[in-house]
Amino acid sequence: MTTSKQPVESAKPAWALQTTPHADALRLSVAPMMDWTDTHCRVFHRLLAPQARLYSEMVHANAVVLGDRARLLAMDPCEHPVALQLGGSEPALLAQAARIAADWGYDEVNLNCGCPSDRVQAGRFGACLMREPALVADSVAAMIAAVPEVPITVKCRLGVDDDHEWERFARFIDTVAQAGCRMFVVHARNAWLQGLSPKENREVPPLRYDWAYRLKRERPDLRVVVNGGIADADEATAHLDHVDGAMLGRAAYHTPYLLHELSVRWFGGVQRSRGDLLRAYRPYVESQLARGVFLKHITRHLLGLFSGQPGGRAFRQTLSEGAHKPGADWSLVERALSLTEREPVLHDHP
Ligand SMILES: Cc1cc2nc3c(=O)[nH]c(=O)nc-3n(C[C@H](O)[C@H](O)[C@H](O)COP(=O)(O)O)c2cc1C
Predict the structure, then answer these.
(1) Whole-angstrom distance, CA of residue 11 vs CA of residue 134
(2) Where in the chain are the domains?
(3) CA-nearest residue, atom 2 of ligand 1
(4) What is the dihedral sign for C-alpha 221, 178, 104, 289?
């Protein structure tokens, strides 16, 4: 197999020297997840993992430019470092949206080149962009020109459908890197654009972490973050021998205490109990309730906190059943917590 050369160094444009603030935070990140990683979720994750890099749900560039920014870009100051993920493929529009995101305070703007849904394909963005490296490069270049001070990054797959040549993947990366992108989040499997739902596309195409590792090995100047199927702390830690970071999606959402475990293991600090962490969330929750936000919009992100722990099911059930009732407030969370706290909560995770 031929080894692709790294053309990045030789032709490095001025803006390719973009630094990556909070570089340390690249080690641990929480994936962009539509309908899940909204601002309430990210504030909760921030409490669990003070240094992790957090990603928003994908927002289409058009919506950022024309839509309700207060809702779409909502972000709490405690969330930093936080990235806005954009969908789209029109360079000028993406540039405008990236500028708005940076002005709004986001620390990074990430371009989605990995989503396989039909809607996204119809709009010619997401994973199908893996087959249009020149367009992605133009988009990235336009975004960097509009926002030189904030890293523009790309989240991609290994390829689409039956693209299984390393050279094709490497060509995509090199073309986009030459436009100035310094960091790639690699969801280490293909996207199958026909016949699989987005959910199946996160499970069926086989994972090939070795391509992410090889990318880092052969292009050490690039920051490479690996994503896909990382289920526990040991697995996440093993990836750090090969790449700059590990991005967790479903495992972080469904078992959020894993984020805290990883945070303590990788960045240090005192391990706190689930109950302590939850209580630290109270001021935020109460401030949101005072602004008219319904408890259910916040507590839905907490359901997995005691997953696998004594009382975990009762905790989840109490929140699920009570949070949508009129007037539901923090006392419901305390009630749910009281069903768990009789059990030891520390030192029960290796
Ligand atoms: C509910 C849900 C929504 C997602 N939405 C997005 C998204 O908006 N943008 C994106 O790049 N990936 C999205 N993904 C994919 C994740 O970012 C991630 O790449 C994928 O889940 C694999 O990582 P994991 O195995 O750690 O979950 C989504 C995944 C889930 C489960």
Answers:
(1) 16
(2) 16-267, 274-338
(3) 33
(4) negative
CATH of 274-338 given 1.20.120.1460, 3.30.450.50, 3.40.50.720, 1.10.287.4070 = 1.20.120.1460
Q: In the CATH scheme, what architecture does the domain 16-267 have? A: Alpha-Beta Barrel (3.20)
- Of ligand 1's atoms, which has the minimum distance to the CA of residue 187? 19
Residues with CB under 6 A from ligand 1: 31-36, 57-58, 85, 112, 114-115, 155, 187, 202, 227-230, 248-251
- Judged by phi (left if over 0) then psi (alpha if -120 to 50, else beta), residue 126 lies in left
Question: Atom of ligand 1 at shortest distance to CA of 248?
Answer: 26
The answer to whether 92 and 142 have CB atoms below 8 angstroms apart is yes
Active site residue 41: no
What does pTM read for this prediction?
A: 0.92
Provide the residue-wise pLDDT of the chain in tens; the chain has 350 residues.
333 333 333 333 333 334 444 556 799 999 999 999 999 999 999 999 999 999 999 999 999 999 999 999 999 999 999 999 999 999 999 999 999 999 999 999 999 999 998 888 788 899 999 999 999 999 999 999 999 999 999 999 999 999 999 999 999 999 999 999 999 999 999 999 888 999 999 999 999 999 999 999 999 999 999 999 999 999 999 999 999 999 999 999 999 999 999 999 999 999 999 999 999 999 999 999 999 999 999 999 999 999 999 999 999 999 999 999 999 999 999 999 999 976 454 544 44
